[in-house]
């Protein structure tokens, strides 16, 4: 049996967990390649027009995997301990199953919802058993996967600390990792920031539980777990960065509210809000990044390389 994993959405959060779990069970898996124009084009063809760019990218990755594996991993996640998540993560299993029903797609999944007695371990045992493995082996594989996940998070936090200790202008990039780290969506923006001499600091790399608690300093009514982590990250890092770059995809419902709140409440730093739909010319984005960079330089009393 070979499992296909779309390199999109929550893959960026659960990479170690998923890959170690399958590896420990001796299950072969294939991850779709980095996002490119062809994947975006295909995903856009299958998606409804109203879908966010991130969901279109996801469908493009699923399509790439069809015919290259036996089952495609598409979890259904309604929420995490810190709260609800965007409804796309709950709906995506059914969206994928329906969108590709004529391609005879076969899915492997697991369900997570806040308040449900069966937690993550039970969900992974079920997934392992679905793949034909015994319960005891699934428990051991899950424990090894959690350990790998913990180590990866710890390593990321160490790398983040090294970034923050470097000399130079630092910008906190506030966005979902599946957007910020995606080669087609976020990477060109980060690359241009680096060319300007800016150090991009990803906001989603943060002690998560602490960030969720800190988010209450900015808003006590945020419903979404991932938004709480990002908003808490702004509170956690804001003294150590020179500006905030909010990066979202169009038309993201949760981000449209959260970004507006950040724009109104962060008054002590320059903030740039970039909403990407996959069609914009890079020249327009570069101009906005240069202006943002100029403002940061002016505030710091430094000369901008763009002037
Ligand atoms: S949070 Fe926004 S970008 Fe992410 S899946 Fe939901 S609508 Fe799309």
Topology record:
Elements lengths: L1 E4 L5 H14 L3 E4 L5 H10 L6 H13 L5 E3 L2 E2 L1 E2 L2 E2 L2 H13 L7 E2 L2 E2 L7 H11 L4 H31 L4 E5 L2 H4 L6 H9 L3 E4 L5 H7 L10 H13 L5 E7 L3 H13 L5 E6 L5 H19 L7
Helix pairs in contact: 1-6, 2-3, 5-6, 8-12, 9-10
This protein binds iron/sulfur cluster.
Give an overview of the whole structure.
The protein has helices spanning 11-24, 37-46, 53-65, 87-99, 120-130, 135-165, 177-180, 187-195, 208-214, 225-237, 253-265, 282-300, and strands at 2-5, 28-31, 71-73, 76-77, 79-80, 83-84, 107-108, 111-112, 170-174, 199-202, 243-249, 271-276. By secondary structure, it is an alpha/beta fold. It folds into 2 domains: 2-148, 3-Layer(aba) Sandwich (Rossmann fold), CATH 3.40.50; 166-300, Rossmann fold, CATH 3.40.50. Strands 2-1-3-7 form a 4-stranded parallel beta sheet, with helices on both faces. Strands 10-9-11-12 form a 4-stranded parallel beta sheet, with helices on both faces. A two-stranded parallel sheet has the order 4-8. A hairpin with a 2-residue loop joins strand 5 (79-80) and strand 6 (83-84). The longest helix is centred in the middle third of the chain and has 31 residues, at 135-165. It starts with a strand and ends in a 7-residue tail after the last helix. The structure holds iron/sulfur cluster. The site of iron/sulfur cluster (SF4) has 11 residues, from helix 3 and helix 11. Residues 52, 54-55, 86, 88, 176, 249, 252-255 line the site of iron/sulfur cluster.
Quick take:
The protein has twelve helices and twelve strands. With 307 residues, the protein is α/β, with parallel strands linked by helices. The site of iron/sulfur cluster has 11 residues, from helix 3 and helix 11.
